[in-house]
Each structure stands twice: as structure tokens, then as C-alpha cells.
Write a structure and sequence with these properties.
Blueprint (H helix, E strand, L loop, with lengths): L3 E5 L3 H13 L4 E5 L12 H5 L14 H6 L2 E4 L4 E5 L4 E4 L3 E4 L2 E4 L3 E3 L12 E2 L4 H11 L4 E5 L3 H12 L3 E5 L12 H13 L3 E3 L4 E6 L5 E6 L2 E4 L2 E4 L3 E3 L2 H5 L10 E2 L11 E3 L4 E4 L6 E3 L3 H15 L13 E5 L2 E7 L2 H7 L4 E8 L10 E8 L6 E8 L3 H14 L3 H5 L15 H10 L2
Parallel strand pairs: 1-2, 1-7, 2-3, 7-19, 9-16, 10-11, 10-16, 11-12, 18-20
Antiparallel strand pairs: 4-5, 5-6, 8-17, 13-14, 14-15, 20-21, 22-23, 23-26, 24-25, 25-26
Helix pairs in contact: 1-8
């Protein structure tokens, strides 16, 4: 009899799990339940459609629905899973009743942390997640004059830039002293904030949200903050991502300090025959083992692949993460890997810093932009433990490389003498990573 596998959630983790399960066990029955109208699209691309860098939302879909059916994946759209019982190995589905499974994968993703203030039920509050709702919001943006973004999180940075590109008077409020306050160092994000000011964005740091007020029709009109009242026909709520773990908690699965499900390196949860992947679970950081939840789509997809393979009877492991990250914000690219200076200091991790500003191409080639690289290393061994960068181009590639360098135990001495590509259109004579490492070695 074919192995019956049930996956709850159709995002990157869920679709990654489904594909991996069919690859590991082609005869398996793979069912994906999603409460949404679609699966397998990129929510991370939504701000760039709003900002007109991407022409339409159809570009964000990984595949058409028929492709999943052709692959033998039974996707059940707009279907709500009410609960599951690990002991009897059953799921309860609205409109379908109860059915059994041989293996279950929880890929229910994240929710935004509720603002927790008066007026949070008003119309005009936009939570960027579902692509169908994003399509509706995009039409509304044409008539929005004033918008407020609540919190300068990664999504918040992207939406601030997108709204500014649409010519909307945009304010951002955040309780931290600078954007990405828990992730990025102030000197790295400073150019982004300066470019926002040039784009007409007003920033409010060290500012708390107090509430929303609306008109007679129940639509938001103002945002109350500790820095005063701001007009708004639209509010983008970009608060912290929290694990959408209600089903798993009700079934008795163990959660960790982040609220994410605790999993092992095979993505197994605390319940037998139940795996989890993506934003719903927590993963150990490779430097110090700190649990992390709410990472990127690439992490969710990779975790889904591991969960799907193992749930189908295969063998695959997921390693601790070093979190290469990057994004476009304002007119800059920013990114990093593992620990930044603010995070290392907060965690009490001893470190030395090497920092340098170089250029992205040959100095005489059109389009050359500055690139600032900051490297963190252990004081005695100079083993790399983190990096952060800001520049006009090439940030993603450097972040990927430096995350691997941290993972493999590369030192500042290694980086200070590494080879680098020199080609006028794509690489300068002096690689900024090298000069930053040299600065760190000499401290």
C-alpha cells in the first residue's frame, strides 16, 4: 500500500517537502493542504511588484497549478486543517472529516505579531503575505497619499522603499534606534536611511505605536505614536514574524524559546511520524547554538526538502545555520552572515572587528559603487564569526561566501591573503573583503 503523506502548508517549506517526498518515494500519496488560493509563490517578491520593479504578480509563481497535479502532488486549496492527533495518526479537515496519515509535515509558516493596540481591527491595515490580497492592495495603492510602515523589519525596509517608489508620502516607525535594530549594525544601515530621506521618507526611531484611529466607515485615518499622530490611509504592519504553531501546540508538540517547534537535524518534531519545516520551527545558529525562528525562503525550502525526504523514508540532514542575508533597501544593498557587531555584543561574544570601504568595480568603469565590509572574528584565533556589508552591488555573493567561511572556520589571516577576481566591469583590483580582513589582522 502506498505511503500516505500529509503536508499542512503550501509555502516554500510545504512545496519543498512535497517535491522531495515524491522524489524519495515516487509511489507515495502526497497531499498538501493550504488555506490559501495558491501555493508555491514568492511572498518576498510582493514589495517589488508594489514598487513597480517587477511588472506583475504572475511572475512570482513557481509553477502553474497543473504542474503539481502532473507531478503527483494532490494540492487541496482553500482547505482548513482543524487539527491532528499524533497518537492515532489522523488529521481533521474542514469539509473532509478525519483521515489517516503515515507521515505528517507541519509547514504552517508564520503570522505577524499582532500590534496589540486600539484600532488594530480597522480597515486599511495591510499584512503582506497572501498574494491574492496583495493584488487587491496594489490597486488601492494608486489612491493612497499617506502611508505608515510599522517597524523597520526586513519586510518593512522593502515596503518603505516600494511605497516611496509609488510616490506615496511614507513614514516608518520603529522602537529601535535604527532600522533592522536586532539584525543590522547602525553604521551599515545608515546609508539606507540617508537614501530614504532623499526619497522623501520620514523616519521615526525610538518610537512606539500607541494605536490607530479610523473614520465612520471603519477605515484607518491616523496612527498614534509616541512621536505624535501621523495621517495614513494605509498602514503596513511589518512586525516580528511569529511561528504559526497553534495546530502543533494543540496536538502537544514541543516548542522552544522562540515559540517555534523544536526539531532535530532530520526535521523530526517531538511527536513520532511528525516533521516540521520553515518559519513554524526553530533552528540552531551555528555560532553558539542560539535558536532562531523566522528565517528566509531559502531556509524554509531547504528545510522542507530535508523533512520531505526523511518523512518519505529517505535520509537527509539539516545543519545549523549561519544565515547569509541580504536585501535592497532605499538605493543600497545590505547584507551579512552569522553575527553582526550589535548582536555579538548583546550576546557577550568577544570579538575583534576589521572594516574597510572599497569599490565594486574598477574605479574607472561606469556604475562603480562603494562597498563597505565589516568582519568580526574571535580575538585570539581570528576565526571569522560574522560579517555585515553595505554597497551598490555584489552584496549577495559576498554574504553567501562569508557564511560558508564562518561555517568552515576561515580566519582573517586566510581572508587577508585570499585571491580575488579582477575584471573592470565586475571586480576591483582590491577586494573589500581582503582589505577589511587586513584591517582586522592589524588591530
Amino acid at each position: 500500500m502506498a505511503r500516505r503523506m500529509v503536508i499542512i502548508g503550501g509555502g516554500a517549506a510545504g512545496i519543498g517537502a512535497a517535491g522531495a517526498a515524491k522524489a524519495a518515494a515516487p509511489s507515495a500519496e502526497v497531499i498538501v493542504y493550504t488555506a490559501f488560493e495558491d501555493v508555491g509563490y514568492s511572498p518576498c517578491g510582493i514589495p517589488y511588484v508594489h514598487g513597480k520593479e517587477i511588472p506583475d504578480f504572475t511572475s512570482l509563481f513557481l509553477a502553474e497549478k497543473q504542474a503539481y497535479a502532473d507531478a503527483g502532488i494532490d494540492v487541496r486549496y482553500e482547505t482548513t486543517v482543524l487539527g491532528f492527533d499524533p497518537e492515532s495518526r489522523t488529521v481533521q479537515v474542514e469539509g473532509e472529516g478525519q483521515s489517516g496519515y503515515d507521515a505528517l509535515i507541519i509547514a504552517t509558516g508564520f503570522d505577524y505579531q499582532p500590534p496589540g493596540v486600539p484600532g488594530e481591527d480597522l480597515g486599511g491595515l495591510y499584512y503582506v503575505k497572501n498574494i491574492r490580497r496583495a493584488m487587491e492592495w496594489d490597486k488601492i495603492l494608486d489612491n493612497v497619499r499617506h502611508a505608515v510602515v510599522v517597524e523597520a523589519s526586513p519586510l518593512g525596509l522593502e515596503m518603505v522603499t516600494a511605497l516611496a517608489h509609488r510616490g506615496i508620502d511614507t513614514h516608518v516607525i520603529d522602537p529601535h534606534p535604527w532600522a533592522l535594530g536586532e539584525l543590522c549594525d547602525p553604521d551599515i544601515v545608515a546609508p539606507v536611511q540617508e537614501s530614504w530621506a532623499e526619497m522623501g521618507v520620514t523616519t521615526h526611531w525610538d518610537t512606539r505605536l500607541l494605536g490607530f484611529t479610523g473614520d465612520r466607515e471603519g477605515h484607518v485615518r491616523t496612527v498614534a505614536t509616541t512621536d505624535g499622530e501621523l495621517p495614513a490611509e494605509l498602514v503596513v504592519v511589518a512586525t516580528h514574524k511569529v511561528a504559526n504553531n497553534a495546530l502543533a501546540v494543540a496536538a502537544g508538540l514541543r516548542t522552544g524559546s522562540t515559540g517555534g517547534l523544536v526539531v532535530d537535524d532530520h526535521m523530526r518534531t517531538s511527536a513520532p511520524h511528525v516533521w516540521a519545516a520553515g518559519d513554524v520551527c526553530e533552528i540552531p545558529h551555528g555560532v553558539g547554538g542560539l535558536p532562531l525562528q523566522g528565517l528566509t525562503g531559502s531556509h524554509a525550502y531547504a528545510q522542507g526538502k530535508v523533512a520531505g525526504t526523511n518523512a518519505a523514508g529517505g535520509e537527509r540532514a539539516y545543519q545549523p545555520v549561519y544565515v547569509p542575508w541580504g536585501m535592497v533597501a532605499g538605493t543600497w544593498m545590505i547584507g551579512g552572515a552569522a553575527l553582526g557587531e550589535v548582536a555579538a555584543t548583546a550576546l557577550g561574544v568577544p570579538h575583534v572587528v576589521g572594516k574597510a570601504t572599497g569599490i565594486s568595480r574598477a574605479r574607472y568603469f561606469p556604475g562603480v559603487r562603494p562597498v563597505t565590509v565589516k568582519l568580526l572574528a574571535e580575538p585570539r584565533t581570528l576565526r571569522l564569526i560574522g560579517a555585515q556589508m553595505v554597497g551598490g552591488e555584489g552584496i549577495k555573493e559576498r554574504a553567501d561566501f562569508l557564511a560558508l567561511a564562518v561555517r568552515k572556520g576561515i580566519t582573517l589571516h586566510d581572508l587577508a591573503s585570499m585571491e580575488n577576481v579582477y575584471s573592470p566591469p565586475i571586480g576591483a583590483l582590491n577586494e573589500p573583503i581582503v582589505t577589511a580582513a587586513q584591517a582586522g589582522v592589524s588591530t
